[in-house]
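Minutes, project check-in

Agenda point 3 was the complex the collaborators sent over. CS summarized: four entities, 678 residues total, and the question is how they sit relative to each other. Sequences were read into the notes so everyone works from the same version.
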Amino acid sequence: MITLKKLAEELNVSISTVSKALNDSTEISTETINKVKNLAEKYNYRPNKAALSLKSNRTLTIGVVIPDILNRFYSKVLSGIHDSADKNGYDVITITTNESMLKEIDSLQILSRGTVDGVIIAMSEETLNKNDYSHIKEFTMKQTPIVMFDRVTDKINCDKVIIDDFDAIYNEVKSLKALGRKKIGFITTINDLNVGKFRANGFRKASFDFFNKFDKNLILRISKNHDKHQEIEKFIKKNKPDAIISADIICGVISINIARNLNIKIPENLSVVGFGDKTISEYSFPKLTTIYQHGKEIGNRSVELLVDRMNSKWYGLNKNLNTYTTDIIPTLTIGGSSK
Amino acid sequence: MITLKKLAEELNVSISTVSKALNDSTEISTETINKVKNLAEKYNYRPNKAALSLKSNRTLTIGVVIPDILNRFYSKVLSGIHDSADKNGYDVITITTNESMLKEIDSLQILSRGTVDGVIIAMSEETLNKNDYSHIKEFTMKQTPIVMFDRVTDKINCDKVIIDDFDAIYNEVKSLKALGRKKIGFITTINDLNVGKFRANGFRKASFDFFNKFDKNLILRISKNHDKHQEIEKFIKKNKPDAIISADIICGVISINIARNLNIKIPENLSVVGFGDKTISEYSFPKLTTIYQHGKEIGNRSVELLVDRMNSKWYGLNKNLNTYTTDIIPTLTIGGSSK
DNA sequence: CTGTTAGCGCTTTCAA
DNA sequence: TTGAAAGCGCTAACAG
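CS then shared the predicted structure for the full assembly.
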C-alpha cells in the first residue's frame, strides 16, 4: 500500500506537505501541489481508510442488520440502502440475523466497535416474540445513530421507517374474502402519529366493498400503554374471527401465539396476515405474500434519516436535534394514501 | 466510545497494562487481569476496529462486488458469502455495480483503500462486453487477494469459482426443444481443467435423449488462444442454429452481438441461453431462467478460497502459494456430475 | 510556503 | 509484574 510517507520520501518533502498538497491546501505552492498530485496519480495513491477513521472518528460506513437477505422485501430495502448510501459517500456493511436474537445482539456488538457511523436495522422475529429490546436500547445509549425499519417497536426512541399502505390492506381483505374467509379482524396500534390510519381506512373501505358492511368491533385499536397480549386475547375470544390482518408485525406474531394457546388451529380456522414481510404470512393459509411496492424507497428513506442524524451529530447539533426529532419524527410514513 | 486509555485512567495503570491484561498476557498478574476485565465488562469495552486494522494491517473485512443484489442468483451467493464470512470472523462490505463498468472500477478503487483484506467479484456485463479487464488486472497487482465467481475471464490470474452443472444444461436443451427449437448449438471454452466438460456431457446426453442424435458439429469448443469472436461467427454462419447454449456468459454475450451484426433476429430466429445468470436469459425467447441450485455453495467456496489466500499472505506463505495456485486451482468447479 | 509535532486507539518491544 | 515509547497512516495546530 502506497502511503503519504512514501510519496514524501520520494519527493523529499515532509509528510504534512504531501497531505496538505493532496487536500489542496492554500498553504502549499501550486508547483508543489502539482508535483505531489502527479506522483500520487502515478502510484494511484488512496488514503488509508483505517487511518482516516481513526483520525476523524468517522468511518463513512453504515451498518445494516436484517433478518434475511434472501427475503425479497429485505433485499429490495437493502438495494435502496445501497443506492442512497453510495450517493452519500457511505460504504455499507451488512449482517443477517436469520431471525435470531442472539445473532442480532452479536451484530450490534460487532458494529459497536467504531466500525460504522450509523445503523439501519429490522429486528429479528425472535426479538419481537420475546419482546425484549434491551440490546437495542443499550445500543442507543452509545453515540451511534440508529434507524429502524419495518420491524419496529415503540419501546425504542429513534427514527423509524415503516410502510402504511392503503392499497395493500385493501387487497389483503379482497384476497381473504376470495379464499372464503368471512369474518376478518383488523388489529392496529395507535400512536401519536396515527400510524396505521391509512391502513385502517383501507380496511374499512374494503369491508364495505367486499362485505357490504363494516363492523366497528372487528377493528382492534391498541393504545400505546395497553397490554397487547391481553387486548388481542380478549378480541379473539369475543369476535372469533376466521382471519386477522395485523397492521404491524408484532401484533401479528402475538396473535398467532395467542391463537395457538387458545387451541385455535392455524391456518385451518384462522388466517393471520401480518403487514410486515414474509415471516408472518408463512403462518397464514393459504400463504399470502404481502407485496411491497416500497422496498427501495424504505431503504432510501432510512439512509436519508440516518445521514441527517449522523451529520447533526458530526456538526455538533445533537443537543438541538435529539429532543427535537424524538418527538417529531420518530416514525416516518411511506406510501400512505388517503383515497 | 470507551477506550483503553479511559480504562487505564480509571484503574490508575498504564495503557499497555490494560492492553496486555485484556489479551491475557502472562506478563500481567491475575489480580490485575481480573480488575481490568471487570471494568472492561462493566463499560462493555470493544477494541476500536480502525485502530486495530491500522496497527495490524488487517481489516477482517471482505469486499463483495456484484452486478445486482436483486438478482436471485447473486443474492443467494451473497447469502452464502455472509454465512461463511461470519464463520471465519469477517465482516462483509458489499457494492453493486448495476452492470456498469465504471461503477465496477469505482468499487475496486473504494476497496483499494485498506478497507478490506480481500475481494470477491462477479464482473459487470459491460466489462464482459468491452472485454476490458485492465482495472481488475491493476487490482491484482496490489496485495489484496481477489476471487472471481460466475462472471470470470481467463485473462485474469486468480482463484475462480464457477458452476459446471450437467443437469442444468440437460434441462436447458429439454426446454428449448419444448419451445420448438430444432437445431441447438453449444459453445464452450476449453481450458486446462476441462471446465465445461460436464456441461458438454449434459448437452450430448440431452441431444441423444431429445433429438435421437448428436451432431458433433453443433458443439463449438474454443481454445484458450483462439479468437472467440471469429470462431463464434464462423460457427453461426456455418450451422445456422436456432438456439445457442453458451457454457459461459462471455460467449453468450458475444454470440448475441455477432448474431445482431449478422442481422439474425433475436429472439425470433435465434435463442441465446447463457449459462450464467439472468442477464443473458433476458435476451432469449421465451425468457429462460437458468435455475441455480448452487448459489449458496458458490458463496461459501468463494469465501473459503479467499480466506485461504488471505491467510497465506498473512502468514507469509505467498511465495509458495502464488505460483502453486495459479496453476493448480485457477478455477474451482462446483456441482459437476458425470452421470 | 514548508516542516515539526502531537495524537486518534491499539500492540509490542524494551526498560525498569 | 508494570510502564514508557514507538509506530501503524493520517490531519492539523503551531513554528519556522
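Noted in discussion: Residues 166 and 339 of chain B are 8 Å apart (CA to CA).
Follow-up: revisit at the next meeting once the mutant set is ready.
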